[in-house]
Amino acid sequence: MTRLVDLRRGGSPTSRWSAAMGEPRADLRHVVRSYGEYDEFSTGAVARREIPAPDAVLVIEFAGPLIATGAVDEGTSRVAAFLGSPARGPALTWHDGWQHCVEIRLSLLGVYRLFGPVRELAGRIAPLDALWGRAGDELTERLADADGWTRRFDILDDVFAAAVAGGPEPDAEVAHALARIDGTAGAVPIGELVTETGWSRGRLAERFRAQTGLTPKGAAGLVRFHHAVTAMSTGRPLADTALASGYYDQAHFTREFRAFAGCAPGAWLRSRLDGLVGAGIG
């Protein structure tokens, strides 16, 4: 297929990076938000703070394993292919100075369609072979052997299309509730979702969590936080960002930011990595 790809690069005296960003084929866009192939080099080790967004990230490394820990993990893992799912807290990753990988951003219900029930995945680093067994290892090997991002993205299209065809379909009520949360930037009252789905509050919470890893309230908070971070990253003042995103005031936003990111908004902005994409841990 013909695929539009955004090629990017950057660097500093001590680092450099390049990226190819593309979309999946049209019939997968409810499952896959984006593909990216990244290659970065730094003269020193790189530590990142990955703040949560309302999607999950599948990472497949070619340069060697990362050290990673999810928001609720009790320790670190050394992993070369893994799924990171969002929760109320950041994930942390480390590499020794060279990283070459593909990164696939999946919708929350896309994770369910590919891997089945996700109740226990929220906030965790899940090795791909634990989710897909030998099929996960085979995908990693095929991608590593492929010649460039064009072929790698095509392989991902084919593998994901086959997995979705044989995977579970989310409840229509869960899909509706998630769409309402996304469409209102997290502002929809949970009581409205209960009324609109015709389910009890308990059933909605249970089914929603089984298929997204989050409760409706948790998903709404995450979507609101993501919208606020997007606004803040453009240089919008914190007080304006807070009010426009539905927080009571700047202090409320700061408390929520600390809960999701593990640091204050200003500290996160100041921790952007020199010459690389993302934010550091310190």
From TrEMBL:
PROSITE patterns for the chain: HTH_ARAC_FAMILY_2
Keywords: DNA-binding, Transcription, Transcription regulation
InterPro entries: AraC_XylS_family_regulators, Homeodomain-like_sf, HTH_AraC
Domain of life: Bacteria
Pfam families: HTH_18 (PF12833)
Sequence ranges assigned to domain HTH araC/xylS-type in this UniProt record: 190-271
Species annotation: Herbihabitans rhizosphaerae
Single GO term (MF): sequence-specific DNA binding
PANTHER family: BLL1074 PROTEIN (PTHR46796:SF15), HTH-TYPE TRANSCRIPTIONAL ACTIVATOR RHAS-RELATED (PTHR46796)
Official protein name in the record: Helix-turn-helix protein
